[in-house]
Amino acid sequence: MNAFVTGAATTKFGELWGISPRTLAREAFDGALEDSGVSRGRIEALFVGNMLSGLLGGQEHLGALFAEELGLNGVPAFHIEGACASGGLAVHEAVSSIRSGQYKTVAVLGVEKMTDYKPEVVSTALMGAGSDEERAAGATFPGLYAILARSYMRKYGVTGKQLASVSVKNHFHASLNPNAQFRNILTIEAVMKSPLVADPLKLLECSPVSDGAAALIITGIGSGNPVEIIASEVATDSLGLAQRGSLTELKATQIASRKACEKAGLEPADIDVAEVHDCFSIAEILALEDAGFFAKGEAGNAILKGKLTLGVSKHLVVNTSGGLKGAGHPVGATGVKQIAEVVGQLRGFAGNRQVKNARVGLTQNVGGSGATAVIHILKKI
Amino acid sequence: MTSPVTSSPIKIWRNQKNIASLLGKKGKIISWTFVRIPPAGFENQAPYPVALVKLESGKTIMVQVVDFAERNLKFGRKVETILRRTMQADISDVIPYGIKVRPL
Q: Nearest to residue A209, comparing CAs of A142, A264, A152?
């Protein structure tokens, strides 16, 4: 059975101190349900993507918790965790359940509440996605990506301006997204003058700590204005960077992307819109190259020249939501939000950030420093 | 909140033999960063360098660099592994030790 997205919604992302995870979940889910026109009683299962609730809030058992909260009493419900790819993995599981014939209509919820805790605590919790050795060394996620960035800069000569242009592009797109955490325009100079977080990465090259939720209704019956998920692929790599064969590419992205393109019968050149995992500036460059949009060493210059920016690009536009940098990165929600953004683009509902004639979209969601990668390809029906 | 790495004295005890097998090894820096915003338990050390080091055995490890000058942080710089306290003791009061490197 084919899998279609018939409803999608995202809450505002940001420092939402007055809003609880339950309220975020309800807002996203009710929005997706209303969008799909499906009644609550038709939802046969719930897939919840979340990384940090256990570590930060002491709350596990999120399947049952959110099934109750969303009025889906009695339905099978699952908590899916894969670090910052938890949301993408939840979508993958939902799609697999539809394709297997187990369920006809299911809901996906991605939700994360991060700003209740101080930065050191969040930083330590996020390192739950790394290896024991990385934690003992006092590494952080900005630090791990900084190590990748330094290796990449040495091999391919990417410049500070090229790295900074990732944030400039994504903040411009975020300025057009009412749900984005940051709607301010950035300049390359402002990014390059921002303080170092983990050398060579600067503050304005790092995605923020965020709260937010996103939800989808996925069904085997494509009615209304549906978008079909034509590929859903996952790949893994070593948890730690020390065990990797290369520090200038993310193998899991390469494998999942190649498989997704094969199954969809498409090439990266056929993609009109993409949401990729720009948790740090270097991560968007790695994503675009490893997903097959550019040869190694070439994505940075393309971004700096505006080739992936809305209104400038003649073909592919990347991170119209603002990406993780501009829209915010509530980690378990991100992979679901990426799908919601692409669905909005393909249905022509993206308002003033609409990419004209967008027919095929791709999402790339990463867990850890590349240990999990999830690729989805979606097509307008 | 305590780090899952060090919160159990039993786990610290079990990991001792891994630490011993990595002591006194030589290697080279293959990439590095300075962590300026540290995780919990490392606040009193920041900023500090964290490097990927390829040991002569061929194994690569991620470690903090200590006893360094800034000019020591470069590709190919030779270092050796030593035993150091890794982070502040948590509520168990067991002081966690682990592998770090210093320039040769």
A: A142
